[in-house]
Amino acid sequence: MGVFHQDMYRYAAWLSRDKTIAEDVVQEALLRAWKSLESLRDDAAAKPWLLTIVRRENARYFERKRLETVDIDNLTASQAALLAEEPNDELDDMRRAIYELDDDYREPLVLQVLMGLSTNEISEQMGLKQGAVLTRLHRARAKLREQMVTA
Which of 111, 131, 101 is nearest to 51 (CA)? Predict the structure, then answer.
């Protein structure tokens, strides 16, 4: 399971949009996976199985927690320094465009581009037909192009 830790974390970070939450989600997912390891019948299916657990843990996290907001005027010096990182407008525009996609479009795109899953693996993970995945990927890319041109 440790070999997939980075993939699990990247996926959780994209789902939650928060590094701290992603760490919590991955920890919970690893605990859940460890407890139900006997249900994994095929080692080749480990990565999609773990990513499914991450997806479910992320949903559970947001069902359980009410997230606090932070007043930026009350940040510590080190927290404020993070806000002052050198801006990369092009990267920020792309991230913003991806975050603005509906979950139905963002999730398969992230699974394919960031996680390297095939459309078949994405269809299994999301419980969709492969044609639906292909349609969502096409629409996600079209929406990104449209947003990046208007940005």
Answer: 111
d(CA 142, CA 145): 5
Residue 101: left if φ>0, alpha if ψ -120 to 50, beta else—which one?
A: beta
- In the chain, CATH 1.10.1740.10 covers 1-68
User: Could you give the residue range(s) of every CATH 1.10.10.10 domain in the chain?
Assistant: 86-151
47-102, pLDDT tens digit by residue?
A: 888 888 888 888 878 776 654 555 556 666 656 555 555 566 776 777 788 888 88
CATH architecture of 1-68: Orthogonal Bundle (1.10)
Give the whole-angstrom CA distance, residue 31 versus residue 26: 9
The Cα–Cα gap between 46 and 59 comes to 20
The radius of gyration computed from the CA coordinates of the chain, to the nearest angstrom, equals: 17
Contact assessment for residue 136 and residue 144, using Cβ atoms and an 8 Å cutoff: no
Half-sphere exposure of 119 (CA within 13 A, CB side): 10
Q: Which fold has domain 86-151?
A: Arc Repressor Mutant, subunit A (1.10.10)
- Work out the widest C-alpha separation in the chain, in whole angstroms: 52
